[in-house]
Amino acid sequence: MRYIVKLKVLQIKKGGITMSVLSNEERVKILSDIVSIKTVNSNELEVAHYFKRLFSQYGIRSHIDTVTDGRANLIATVGSSQPVIGISGHMDVVSEGNHDDWTYDPFTLTENQGYLYGRGAADMKSGLAALAIALIEIKESGKLTQGTIKFMATVGEEMEQSGSQQLFEKGYADDLDALLIAEPSFPSLVYAHKGSMDFRIKSKGRASHSSIPFLGQNAIKPLLEFIQNINQEYEKIMQTVKGESLDFSNMINKLENQLPSHITKEKAQELIQGLVMTNSIVQGGTQVNSVPDFATAEFNVRTIPEYNNNKVKALFNEYIEQANHNGASLTQELYLDLEPVVTTGQNRLVELGFDIAKSHFSNERDLIITPTVAVTDASNLLKGKDENFPFLMFGPGNGPHQINECVEKANYLEFVEYYIEFITSYLNEENE
Questions:
Q1: Per the domain annotation, does 8 fall within a domain?
Q2: Is the residue at 256 inside a domain?
Q3: Which positions ≥6 away from 357 have C-beta within 8 Å?
Q4: Rg (alpha carbons) of the chain, rounded to whole number
Q5: What pLDDT digit, counting tens, does each position of 53-112 carry?
């Protein structure tokens, strides 16, 4: 059974200060409710309806943007003038895996020793809930003098990013003057990230008994040759193409103590800043005494401006054509194609976000401004925006995609207050 929090608008003033609309208990209840909704690469519509009902209690207009059956974005707005800041997060989560590996039920938010555990507690239902609560608090406080806040909850971010793609195609990002995404990044404030591509290479052969393999055509052999060719080209690219557009030095400094003994800090930075290409899945054959008639290999590629998505496509096309010319039967499926998000980070959004963060979080010395190796919906939402566009990714959460992922309760609650101050300050300041 699902529950919507029955909330009361307190609008109580003491000493001229407007009290919060939602208590800390209610804020945790909202997170608990959406964690309990299973959105493992599906079913985001239920979360969208939840927020729509919640927003309606406060006169916040919102509408559901259907993507496919059971999957829909939610868009809500507060304000009606420029500038427009987009605040965004995704509703889907990755698979929980084996329930037995979890200390607690992954779809029941569980508090223990100051942490809130559950699938999505980090990535990224805590950030999404914090944005939604901040939107309500800002609306009810009347502190927003000008400008518009556009809340965008998306579907499918963990896989194909179909939700943000549809928002872009329908023009929801056209009027954005700034974008804040609440992906789990604390204590890093992120202003840029790499692109991401997923390839599935399929090899078709002809089955036969393994004792007479010449009567068949082994699907694995040309696939292995293709993998070898791609890996060799990747080694050449690593030597000749240096990533300079994204500076990960702050991130590397934070990771220095976690590096293997054979990897220097300088080498780690070189590797992270460059193109990253990983052959992560190989499958073929069904039994040992049969020549396989089908095999697949999958690659994830993290792209950079110096070697962008189009260059990677050309590379894969070249070796597919070469293999087929030599008698293979290879086809490819590009099922994720997201461009890098490259902004300078030299803008008032990032500057203000960092300054306000220092006053909200006790471990301010750990705060850094950096690009990230992760990928967000910004790849779609910022299509067509230039490098000077104000973009910031900053949100709560620990151990995304892991067993027992969690968010520190105090950190989650503080992010709500942070978003309230940050968003209102930015918009009001922009209109001075």
A1: no
A2: no
A3: 189, 364, 367, 394, 418, 422
A4: 24
A5: 999 999 999 999 999 999 999 999 999 899 999 999 999 999 999 999 999 999 999 999
